[in-house]
Amino acid sequence: MKKIVYIIILGFLISSCEDVIDVNLKTAEPRLVIDASLSWVKGTQGNEQEIKLSLTAPYFDNNIPPATGATVTVSDSNNNTFNFIEQGTSGIYTNNTFIPETYSTYTLSINYNNEIYTAIETLFPVVPIDYVEQNDNGGFSGDEIEIKAYYTDPELEENYYLFEFSTPGKVPTLEVYDDEFNNGNQIFGFYSDEDLETSDNITIKISGISQRHYDFMFILLQQTDDESGDPFETQPATVRGNCVNQTNTDNYPLGYFRLTETDVFNYTVQ
After folding, report:
1. What is the CATH number of domain 129-211?
2. Which Pfam families match (predicted)?
3. pTM score, two decimals?
4. In this structure, CATH architecture of domain 32-124+242-262
5. What's the CA gap between 47 and 95, in Å, rounded?
6. Are 107 and 75 in contact, with CB atoms under 8 Å apart?
7. Helix or strand or coil: residue 50?
8. Contacts (Cβ under 8 Å, ≥6 apart) of 250
9. According to a count of CB atoms within 10 Å of the terminal CB, is the N or C end of the chain lower?
10. Which residue ranges does the chain devote to CATH 2.60.40?
């Protein structure tokens, strides 16, 4: 008899767990997201560039709505203005007459929904990747493949670097470095992935960035680090970039306007 009672109670508890709970999340007005990363790859003219504009979406919405119908321009310190034209209604704005020049200052201007967004940034040069070194005995267990991309930092100047390691079918890994303790020395960008296998292709990019962009990326990467696992860690806050809404400061945008010279090194895992 007791066994029957326990089964009835258990069945009641299980059926109770099937109730649907609606989570009411506050919905904010969508903000403009600016992905304006203009990269001049060494050995190319750098004239073809694109800027992506989108809008923030509700938490459970997997679709990223494009920001369409904007007027987008970039001007340089030589009074050249480059118009970025939207491709259909994609939110992707392109230009094929851009003129990259290291240490030149550029101004981004966006007119979206009758509000003006601006940002100012300098195009910084970068040194090439000297060579890539592979270690097959990396990681805590000693069985991970580690990749080191070596480069030589110039002396007598402050430099900031953004590394991007990409393998097909995976989200790129980003790392930022400065030369505070390595000025003028040969150092390396580091990449490790437990799933790397022989014959995998890795695209390695090193870009010269401004100190402000370094600070922005440093904070952003800290907040998106999925290896922390600390349940008491402070919850991430909104990371503000260098773009400003000149019309309505309360309706600030997200994203960043950056210009870089970039060196690309393609490596095949041995």
Report:
1. 2.60.40
2. DUF4249
3. 0.84
4. Sandwich (2.60)
5. 7
6. yes
7. strand
8. none
9. N
10. 32-124+242-262, 129-211
